[in-house]
Write a structure and sequence with these properties.
With 150 residues, the chain is an all-alpha fold. The chain is 51% helix and 0% strand.
């Protein structure tokens, strides 16, 4: 969907290139681990996880407000909660990249389903096992924990 990037090819070959770090912007593992390490020494970095946002958006907004030193009113919080619902954001041109010249949403929308755990519909059992092994090896020294469902 990103016109400036190479064709991703079939999923089965893409996932192997991903695990090998042979992506346009390099290794996802290196990227995530690098920023997680930076977070430990830079107090101005805040991580948010989609699974947590999906599970309890209000709680995560409260955490973000605390991080930013904000004390929004209940009405402001309600307005934010309404605005950040996946289905609403998916329809917003300024959020869904539908007006961005480098994106071709006819190929694939930037925002797909917003469903936690949907990865299970794309990975075979073998791919899931390979990815889990690769993840454990490359993330073994990281205290960062991801959830894949809730």
């Amino acid at each position: 969907m990103i016109r400036t990037q190479p064709e991703p090819g079939e999923w089965s070959s893409y996932i192997h290139r991903f695990m090998e770090g042979k992506m346009v912007f390099g290794s996802w593992y290196d990227h995530v681990n690098g920023w997680w390490k930076k977070k430990q020494t830079h107090s101005n970095i805040h991580y948010m996880f989609y699974e947590d946002l999906s599970e309890d958006t209000g709680r995560e907004i409260d955490k973000l407000c605390s991080f930013l030193g904000l004390s929004p009113s209940d009405e402001e919080k309600k307005r934010v909660l309404r605005g950040v619902q996946f289905d609403k954001m998916k329809k917003e041109d300024m959020i869904n990249y539908s007006t961005h010249c480098a994106m071709d949403i006819k190929i694939s929308p930037f925002m797909r389903k917003g469903q936690v755990g949907d990865w299970k519909n794309h990975f075979t059992v073998a791919q899931s096992q390979q990815f889990d092994e690769d993840y454990k090896k490359k993330m073994k020294n990281s205290p960062l924990q991801f959830r894949t469902e809730f």
